[in-house]
Amino acid sequence: MIALGELIVPAKVVRLGDSPHLPILSKTMSEGLVDQSVKFNKRIASEDLSDYKVVSRGQLVVGFPIDEGVVGVQRLYDRAVVSPAYAVWNIDLNLVDADYLEAVLKHPRSLDYYRTKLRGSTARRRSIPRADFLALGFELPSKSDQLKIRAINELRSLHQLQARTLSALAISLVDSAWAKPLDP
């Protein structure tokens, strides 16, 4: 067993300030970190981004509600920005594969753990104290086994995408059949 705190440390907070524009990322349960302009076809961030946090590729971003798995590794850009409400962490990639760590943090056991530690009065804004988050314990297999697990997860994700695509195609075909007028 290893504690999460042995694998991650808080990243130095870097605010966007007056820096040149960087892509704005949001956290979603199903898709992880997403580019706001792609996901929402519009900007949902505030006008003033100066307080937004800069997040580099490979850093862990923790949002809320954490008990719904709103955690993910930033893989989209060399540098982007996230809400100042999100926590940003550096991962010790010598010990853990980022994809494996993300899978662990989204695992149902981890989600159950978060639920037992949540604090706050507003359901969608409740958070877990830092010490409790870092105390999360789990098995850490060898790096080669972590990479095997990652490959299996990637295959599973691909199959889920294929199933969703086929389902959408079937619905589309039924919709187009319904759209045709009936012959009298």
List keywords for this structure.
Adenine-n6-DNA-methyltransferase TaqI, Chain A, domain 2, 4-stranded antiparallel sheet, 5 helices, globular
Note down, in words, how this protein is organized:
This protein is of the alpha+beta class and 184 residues long. The chain folds into 2 domains: 2-140, Adenine-n6-DNA-methyltransferase TaqI, Chain A, domain 2, CATH 3.90.220.20; 143-178. It is built from 5 helices and 10 strands. Strands 2-9-6-7 form a 4-stranded antiparallel β-sheet, covered by helices on one side. Strand 6 (60-62) and strand 7 (71-73) form a beta hairpin. The longest helix is centred in the last third of the chain and has 37 residues, at 143-179. The chain starts with a strand and ends in a 5-residue tail after the last helix. The mean pLDDT is 86.
Give the helix/strand layout.
Blueprint: E1 2-3, E2 8-10, E3 25-28, E4 32-35, H1 36-39, E5 53-56, E6 60-62, E7 71-73, E8 79-82, E9 87-91, H2 98-106, H3 108-117, H4 130-135, E10 137-138, H5 143-179
Antiparallel strand pairs: 1-10, 2-9, 3-4, 5-8, 6-7, 6-9
Q: Write down the Rg.
A: 20 Å
CATH class value of the largest domain: Alpha Beta
The helical percent reads 25-40%
Order of helices and strands: EEEEHEEEEEHHHEH
What is the number of helices?
Answer: 5
From the helix content, strand content and strand pairing, which structural class follows? alpha+beta
Head-to-tail CA distance between termini: 71 Å
Task: Work out the number of β strands.
Answer: 10
Architecture (CATH level 2) name of the largest domain: Alpha-Beta Complex
User: Any idea how many domains?
Assistant: 2
Mean pLDDT across the residues is 86
CATH topology of the largest domain: Adenine-n6-DNA-methyltransferase TaqI, Chain A, domain 2
Q: Could you give me the name of the CATH homologous superfamily of the largest domain?
A: DNA methylase specificity domains
Describe the sheet with the most strands: 4 strands, antiparallel
